[in-house]
């Protein structure tokens, strides 16, 4: 059914495009919220992604999952918004993850220290950590979203754990 909606939307059928957006809006919004932890930001990002879908849908080849394509588009929108917010707020990150998914913390102070450290990682390491530990994606799914190989995701996670160990002074999962 989704493949049919995509095909019809790409052919210019407005109702199919509207149905495609309706079927996926909650997913887009949930991804945006998960990365920003801010409803207003998530609303804005979801709207931005919906607008981008209108022009980018022609480029969707169908060789991967549509949800993965949407996830990558939403993550890119989050990154764009984060970069914009960094410029506006002189270097502060615009997104905070859902730290409850990380099993390595014991209390609130430790949790805050962990996510401050995660935010200080380079973007590739931070994205890999967020996708695997916060979003619960497999290495293969994270690789699809990030547009790299599974081994690259594993490498970024390895490097992130090494860096977090230094920053936190202890091993992390």
UniProtKB/TrEMBL annotation:
User: Where, by residue number, does the polypeptide cross the bilayer?
Assistant: none
Q: Which UniProt keywords apply?
A: Sigma factor, Transcription, Transcription regulation
Instruction: Please give the family membership noted in the entry.
Output: Belongs to the sigma-70 factor family. ECF subfamily.
Domain (RNA polymerase sigma factor 70 region 4 type) spans 112-164
Which species expresses this protein natively?
Rhizobium alvei
Note the superkingdom of the native organism. Answer: Bacteria
Q: Indicate what this protein is called per its UniProt record.
A: Sigma-70 family RNA polymerase sigma factor
NCBIfam families recorded = sigma70-ECF
Q: Check the record and name the Gene3D superfamilies matching this protein.
A: 1.10.1740.10, Winged helix-like DNA-binding domain superfamily/Winged helix DNA-binding domain
According to the entry, every stretch annotated as the RNA polymerase sigma-70 region domain falls at 20-87
Q: What Pfam families does this protein's entry cite?
A: Sigma70_r2, Sigma70_r4_2
